[in-house]
């Protein structure tokens, strides 16, 4: 056996696991050997499988995720896993900087701003993975698809400042941007404020200021008009495109076994020359954070954002894993469905929050890794109000309200995504503390995609342990979550006063000038308790030290948000 073949065998033996032998139930069922000068894997029953090496430049990565994505349709994306996969397959029209969230070029190479008019130049060499050009027509089609009420996209509100968008979406009427100006006229056939100047130039005119307009263009995952024109774009669409999508992102869809592996390979026509370096990725759903940690220890997966943080010491002891600790996002806690009794009553919501000993949960379950939460905005945000005060732990006060409302002895349900140990622990604490004040709580862990559907589509829940309300990057996301017209209003809570403040805040371009309004918004939400923002969830981002070039980010994807920029320090091998 040659030295090269010996080295190859040893490398494969080291990396052999469930990701490299498709169809195997365990890596230990296979052994590597050489037959007639060829490297083969000997499987159960002596079956010989030829080994195919992925050569230098053909590196791969297997990323473990705690919950399955909701959809492969970018118009229906409404949670972190779907957004990240959409970014990989379609790219973003404008990319937020992973650390500062400032607008940076994506498929839009550059833009010029003249008052309320934005003129975008599309990357000159941007093509879809089938080789066809990405054009301004495609971008216009995508934005109009988001705004179309038949699509029912949860991102539609992010683009209602575009002239003609309210008429097109049926949400209102555009007005002239300045006194005496001639307003655009909306129509049923398109948004008049979106103008195709030439194949690579798009002009968008707003009828009012929008502080988040450039940031929100990250949700424009451009699709080819030629493939989808005339077809439904909503989440129930049966258009063949959504089974095998074509995008202009760094990766091309290969397969998706729901609840298991999502696989994509490098897009050979990607507009960023030389990227991605890592030639394929697998996104594997492993619905338990302790199991994710074990998979990292054994090398079954190369990285994850969702390993149980309480197992950090064991992961560090492996010696081949890098661990990155990000800042806190907006808090987790208890989300209430304010549409249904008794949670349509603020006193009941407050009583349930008062009944829970948050500090004990933090001490017992977070083990010094997390903290008690406060309000709907992440503490590192420029808009965070440091003067907020937490809801006090007051079981006797809670009991008095519960008795006065006639709820003693009644039973209510809280749901959360199965396998998220910290959220499951919160449910157990919640159940115990509510029982102590006279209320019975059933605790139901379910698969993540089902949680998403119940929280964002059917609203079929009473309480949920998670973070479906609150923001980390852009405070204007609270508009979608709490405005009476918000497509992402999972709680169902809104008031005319809050509507007015949210509308005012999104039109103020100066952050300092808008801070007092954001303080009022946070105080209203803290007092109304549509969610008990109770605790900051600690994360550890874990990745094999074979990979470099990642960037810490609290946006979807975390350190894998910049996967196209990452490299692998040693060639991978698959069989």
From TrEMBL:
Sorted alphabetically, which CDD domains does this protein's record hold?
A: PBP2_NikA_DppA_OppA_like (cd00995)
The UniProt record lists the keyword Ribonucleoprotein? no
Q: Where is the Solute-binding protein family domain?
A: 104-488
Q: Carries keyword rRNA processing?
A: no
Give the transmembrane ranges: none
Instruction: Please give a single GO biological process term from the UniProt record.
Output: peptide transport
Q: Which InterPro entries does the UniProt entry name for this protein?
A: Peptide/Ni-bd, SBP_5, SBP_5_dom
Q: Which family does it belong to?
A: Belongs to the bacterial solute-binding protein 5 family.
* PANTHER family xrefs: OLIGOPEPTIDE-BINDING PROTEIN APPA (PTHR30290:SF9), PERIPLASMIC BINDING COMPONENT OF ABC TRANSPORTER (PTHR30290)
Q: What is this protein called?
A: Oligopeptide ABC transporter, periplasmic oligopeptide-binding protein OppA
| Species | uncultured Thermomicrobiales bacterium
């Amino acid at each position: 056996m040659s030295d090269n073949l010996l080295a190859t065998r040893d490398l494969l033996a080291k990396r052999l696991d469930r990701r490299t032998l498709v169809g195997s139930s365990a890596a230990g069922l296979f052994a590597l050997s050489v037959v007639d000068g060829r490297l083969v894997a000997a499987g159960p029953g002596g079956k010989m499988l030829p080994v195919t090496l992925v050569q230098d430049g053909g590196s791969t990565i297997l990323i473990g995720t705690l919950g399955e994505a909701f959809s492969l349709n970018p118009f229906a994306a409404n949670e972190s896993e779907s957004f990240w996969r959409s970014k990989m397959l379609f790219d973003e029209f404008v990319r937020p900087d992973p650390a500062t969230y400032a607008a940076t070029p994506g498929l839009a190479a550059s833009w010029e701003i003249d008052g309320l008019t934005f003129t975008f130049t599309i990357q000159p060499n941007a093509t879809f993975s089938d080789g066809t050009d990405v054009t301004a027509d495609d971008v216009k089609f995508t934005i109009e698809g988001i705004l179309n009420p038949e699509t029912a996209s949860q991102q539609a509100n992010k683009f209602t400042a575009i002239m003609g968008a309210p008429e097109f979406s049926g949400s209102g009427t555009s007005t002239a941007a300045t006194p005496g100006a001639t307003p655009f006229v909306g129509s049923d056939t398109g948004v008049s404020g979106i103008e195709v100047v030439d194949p690579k130039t798009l002009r968008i005119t707003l009828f009012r200021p929008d502080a988040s307009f450039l940031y929100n263009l990250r949700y424009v995952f451009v699709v080819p008009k030629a493939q989808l024109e005339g077809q439904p774009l909503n989440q129930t669409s049966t258009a063949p495109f959504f089974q095998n999508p074509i995008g202009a992102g760094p990766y091309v869809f290969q397969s998706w076994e729901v609840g298991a592996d999502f696989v994509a390979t490098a897009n050979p026509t990607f507009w960023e020359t030389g990227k991605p370096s890592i030639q394929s990725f697998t996104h594997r759903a492993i619905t338990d954070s302790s199991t994710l940690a074990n998979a990292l220890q054994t090398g079954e997966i190369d990285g994850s954002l969702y390993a149980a943080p309480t197992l950090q010491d064991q992961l560090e002891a492996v010696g081949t894993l890098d661990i990155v600790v990000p800042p806190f996002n907006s808090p987790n806690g208890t989300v209430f469905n304010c549409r249904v009794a008794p949670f349509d009553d603020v006193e009941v919501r407050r009583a349930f929050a008062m009944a829970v000993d948050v500090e004990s949960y933090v001490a017992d379950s977070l083990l010094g890794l997390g903290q008690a939460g406060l309000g709907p905005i992440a503490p590192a945000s420029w808009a965070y109000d440091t003067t907020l005060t937490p809801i006090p732990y007051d079981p006797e006060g809670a009991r008095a309200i519960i008795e006065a409302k006639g709820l003693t002895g009644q039973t209510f349900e809280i749901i959360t995504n199965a396998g998220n140990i910290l959220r499951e622990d919160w449910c157990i604490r919640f159940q115990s503390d509510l029982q102590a004040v006279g209320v019975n709580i059933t605790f139901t862990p379910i698969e993540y995609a089902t949680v998403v559907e119940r929280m964002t589509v059917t609203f079929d829940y009473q309480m949920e342990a998670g973070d479906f309300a609150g923001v980390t990057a852009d405070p204007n996301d609270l508009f979608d979550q709490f405005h009476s017209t918000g497509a992402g209003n999972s709680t169902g809570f809104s008031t005319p006063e809050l509507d007015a403040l949210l509308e005012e805040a999104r039109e103020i371009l100066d952050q300092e000038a808008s801070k007092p309004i954001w303080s009022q918004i946070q105080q209203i939400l803290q007092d109304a308790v549509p969610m008990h923002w109770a605790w900051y969830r600690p994360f550890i981002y874990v990745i094999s030290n074979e990979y470099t070039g990642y960037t810490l980010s609290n946006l979807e994807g975390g350190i894998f948000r910049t996967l196209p920029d990452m490299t692998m320090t040693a060639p991978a091998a698959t069989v």
